[in-house]
Amino acid sequence: MIRALLIAHLLLSWTFNLSFAKDSNFSKEKLEKITEKFKMEISDGNMPGAVILIAKNNNIIYHNAIGYLNKEKSISMQKDAIFRAFSMTKPLVSVLTLIMMEEGLLQLADPIDKYLPSLNNYFFYDAQKKNNNKKISKPITIYDLLRHTSGITYASRSPEIREFYEEANLYSKTIPFKSMKITPEKQIEGFSKIPLLFEPGTQWQYGLSTDLLGRVLEVIDNKSLAEILKERLLDKLEMRDTTFLISQKNHSRIAEPLKIDNKTGKPTIQLIDLTKKLANDSGGAGIATTTSDYYNFCSMLLNNGIFKDKTILSRPSVKLMTSDHLNFQVKQKIQPGELLFGSKGYTFGLGVMVRKDNGFALVPGSKGEFSWAGYAGTFFWVDPQEKLIGILMAQTPGKIRQYYRRLIKQMTYQALK
Hints:
Shape: globular
Number of helices: 12
Order of helices and strands: HEHEEEEHEEHHHEHHEHEEHEHEEEEEH
Radius of gyration: 21 Å
CATH class of the largest domain: Alpha Beta
Number of domains: 2
CATH topology of the largest domain: Beta-lactamase
Distance between the termini: 33 Å
């Protein structure tokens, strides 16, 4: 009874945040189920709040701020809330790379030591012999960095070579996000010291590849990644609140996680502080953004590279980015969909996960849809067949992230007529 009253109160107090647009393809009543379900999650103490955006045929048909921006201070969520997007930085940097490719500044076939000569002597780790004295037979390319086939990993996921990443200052057990807290020069030096997990191009392993890609782009354009991204992509997409450093005037808009994880009873995983400038611009995890900003990015991709009649990226480049770049030629110990949803049925493109078919997955969707997510609870997908975009912004680090990614997908597709 108490829980029911609380949910009813929340429904009344947050109604003003909700906006619908008429769309004959969606049931308004079923869209409201999304609101009800997420308010239930909030009232149960599983998440602080969220902003959800759903668009179809280039129209936003559902945009809602639910719950709390800061639960500890009882501040309500707002639609223009700023979220740490972590790995949703990667698709932005991937598009930036393709833009620079189109300008003739680079080729995907380029070995990275063309731009960073110190990275020309890689060895890979032999798990059976437990050593790293076997030299690779082909170099890491920009293509490998884009599709995460470089042999570079996240040390937290690869205990067999964690000590090498610790020695290279790319990982620390006691300092969260250590690789973001060293200068670009020190980071490049660190990358020169680690062994690779495998020969480049032979396996898919999610990791710091996009962070290294950011260093490559900086050398090519002789500017910081933040400057390049702003000039070539963010400004053109009118993504005014998407940044590596949140300005003082916007600190009050930052969404915060719960202090205690309701599922474990332990303090929530610590997140990066983007109110202070980090030592380097992390191409893999350093962006803060809003649902409206990220919608502009998704909209551009859905429309084959066009945003408000401006061509940001060519149609062939969008197609290249969102195609299968693993197929059966690249080994996968864990598939991209298993990482995000706990579901098979997905492959990887250039910075995004791509659905291989309508079936063989645990969530509704369409063949060719592409998506990715962030460590702290953000998630997006673009479904070209349905002309559909879905964005979930929340700060829910921990295992519950997979649940919310599946939940928003199934709750969105159930509302389609």
